[in-house]
Amino acid sequence: MSFEQHLFISDVHLGAFSANTNKQIEEDLIALIKHCKRERIEINILGDLFDYWMEYPEKGFVPDLGRKVLDAFEDYNRTVTPALFITGNHDNWTFGHFKDRGFDLESNFRLKEIAEKRVLLMHGDGVAAAKIDFPRAAFHKLLRNDTFVRTYQKMLSPELGLATMKAFSSFTRRKDNHNPEPLNRQAKKIFSKHNLDYIISGHDHVPRMETFSRGCYINLGTFFNHRTMALYNNTGLSLVTWEAASKNFIPFE
């Protein structure tokens, strides 16, 4: 299926905030999903849709987070096209629920061609592919390790396990220094080794477009704070802000 418009979004971090803030984030995101359904815009999620997510398959446990958002995505996935969901370092512990919701699920990275442009999509915390030469940090590898996850789930109940994840997520988010330079350097290195037109990621929460001699790197920033995302249409690829009240994309400045 061919689309004239493609949307890229990351770092929603549903569940990280107060009830009122979470409610507003959910409402704005649902308005965006419905807009994309109505206008037939392809959606790509580049990680951290949730601030903490871990399913316990042996106990049939699925977090009670963002159900209205997932319902809206499921409707989009079934009626328009499966949204690509590249899981991030906060929501990669999925054991079937997102696939059941109709997502095109990816735990690593995805290379897409859009209007003859080669686009590398990833969350931004590294990938499991030697040819990309962007290894994950040891701690992020541990969090994705099957043995670690099984041990974690045996030691902690779903309720305690999720509460621990939430507390740890809050701690690490406070430590974030929002430094754009590491991902800028990484993008420049990837461009030097691969034939790409764009690299798009999230992860460091700093929305920006950086142009290098071999291509353009776009960081999506955060939906929870900036409401920023990238939009590809007949004018090219640009960084925009979603204005839910008017249902418009506004150029990001």
From TrEMBL:
Statement: the UniProt record of this protein carries the keyword DNA-binding: no
Domain of life of the organism encoding this protein: Bacteria
Keywords: Cell inner membrane, Cell membrane, Hydrolase, Manganese, Membrane, Metal-binding
Record EC number: 3.6.1.54
SUPFAM superfamilies linked to this entry: Metallo-dependent phosphatases (SSF56300)
GO terms of molecular function: hydrolase activity
Top enzyme class: hydrolase
Domain Calcineurin-like phosphoesterase per the UniProt entry, residue ranges: 7-207
Keyword Nucleotide-binding belongs to the record: no
Protein name: UDP-2,3-diacylglucosamine diphosphatase
